[in-house]
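Researcher: We plan to redesign the surface later, but first we want a full-length starting point. Tokens attached.
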């Protein structure tokens, strides 16, 4: 089961963005996904806020995207 996407843009409010990142971490944990290190959730939320697609070499972003549909990401692992 996937959590609902985040439609509100929080980039204008740093506190709201950090709270949204904490919600990403909580949603992931509820779905059995542990994100290490925790600042990957902050990077993910920043990408959502800025409507960017992170290009990464980190399995956590794919795991986060499986729970948070608003995160578009591209791995160069595959």
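Model: Full-length starting sequence:
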């Amino acid at each position: 089961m996937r959590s609902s996407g985040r439609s509100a843009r929080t980039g204008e409010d740093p506190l709201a963005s950090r709270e949204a990142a904490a919600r990403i971490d909580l949603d992931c944990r509820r779905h059995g996904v542990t994100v290490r290190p925790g600042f990957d959730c902050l990077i993910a939320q920043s990408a959502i806020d800025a409507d960017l697609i992170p290009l990464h070499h980190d399995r956590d972003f794919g795991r986060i995207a499986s729970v948070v549909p608003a995160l578009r990401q591209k791995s160069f692992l595959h």
